[in-house]
Amino acid sequence: MDTENKLCNKVEECYHIMGKKWMGLIVHTLMEEPKRFSEIHAFIPDLSKRVLNERMKELEDNGIVLRNVIADRPVRTEYSLTKKGTELGRSLKALEAWADKWL
Amino acid sequence: MDTENKLCNKVEECYHIMGKKWMGLIVHTLMEEPKRFSEIHAFIPDLSKRVLNERMKELEDNGIVLRNVIADRPVRTEYSLTKKGTELGRSLKALEAWADKWL
DNA sequence: TTACTAGGTAACTTTATGTAACCATAATAA
DNA sequence: TTATTATGGTTACATAAAGTTACCTAGTAA
To answer: Residue ranges of the HTH hxlR-type domain (chains A, B) (predicted)?
Structure first.
């Protein structure tokens, strides 16, 4: 009987969220400044609008991103990181530093 | 013209690797000590053998994991993190700390 | 009139992942 | 003898996730 034979729920959950395609890049992209839908899409052109929209909803549901709809015409939507999201982005910098060294 | 209008290849690549399902949990699981195929599977039961095997090959191809086949019967396979993999695991601890605080 | 913009949505195709069965070999159990 | 178990896979098939294309709304520009 090992004392460390089960994964922590929180660890599992964070990898479940961040293990989805494009999630990391989207959060990374929002780190500098809030961006609109089309701006995120311009930064990550291989990510389709359909999935980008799905990911943004997931990030909003997780309290990582805030969606601000600007009632202009055409309607604009601005996405910004919450405090939770900003801290997530900061934690991802360690991974990016690893990438810079090893990839 | 913005100076920061393109994603760095290394950043893209690391999210491409780590953005695959189960990758993070597998690396996490190997952090404590090397493990055999069936041990990893026991830690992450929802991960199928088919995909676990696929992920291990990818990790080996990326130089993150070392596969050691022990010619015993039945044949055993032990997976351990390389230096590159160990440093990856360390960088993921920041993400796990975020999870512990926010999830 | 036609085209363009922004931020989507709907229908459909392709890729990734999940599931169940199977393999080889040797040791062990019935 | 005839199963059964263990290990680390592989194979074929089913389902879920992601990619593609066309379309929507309303206002503006050509």
So the answer is: 8-103
Distance B41 CA to C22 C1' (A): 19
What amino acid is encoded at B53 in this protein?
N
Closest CA to A64 of B99, B7, B25: B99
Helices first, then strands: H and E counts in chain A: 5, 3
Q: Of A7-11, A30-34, A88-92, B5-9, which range is least confident? A: B5-9
Q: In the numeric block, which tokens belong to residue B3?
A: 């100076």
Q: How far is A34 from chain B (nearest CA, A)?
A: 14
Tell me the per-residue pLDDT of B40-65, one tens digit each, with 9 for 90 and over: 999 999 999 999 999 999 999 999 99
| Residues in chain B, pLDDT under 50 | 1-3
Q: Which residue of A has its CA nearest to B7?
A: A43
Nearest chain A CA: its distance from B74 CA (Å): 24
Verify whether the Cβ–Cβ distance B7 to A23 is below 8 Å: no
Q: Closest residue of B to A2, CA-based?
A: B43
- Which run of H or E residues covers position B77? strand B76-81
User: What pLDDT shows up at residue B3?
Assistant: 38
In tens, the pLDDT along A65-91 reads 999 999 887 889 999 999 999 999 999
Question: Hey, what amino acid is at B48?
Answer: S
